[in-house]
Specification:
- The protein is an all-alpha fold.
- It has helices spanning about 5-10, 10-15, 30-40, 45-65.
- It is globular.
- The two termini are about 20 Å apart.
Length: about 70
């Protein structure tokens, strides 16, 4: 997405109001981003429990960006 011109021209993206996490390239890697991406993509009860406490601060940070 980060290389997509249409995405990059969105007002929210230009303002920095985007929450990025590793996604497919880091799934199953032993990093914080990999663990979050794996839990998010699986979507089961344990994954949801894992990301619940982590996604709030990530979204708050993206909303506060200017």
């Amino acid at each position: 997405m980060t290389g997509n011109a249409v995405f990059n021209n969105l007002a929210t993206v230009k303002a920095g109001h985007v929450a990025y996490f590793g996604g497919a390239p880091v799934i199953n890697s032993n990093t914080a981003s990999g663990q979050f991406s794996s839990a998010f993509s699986i979507g089961g009860p344990l994954g949801i429990k894992y990301i619940t406490g982590k996604i709030g601060p990530l979204l708050t940070e993206s909303l506060a960006a200017s």
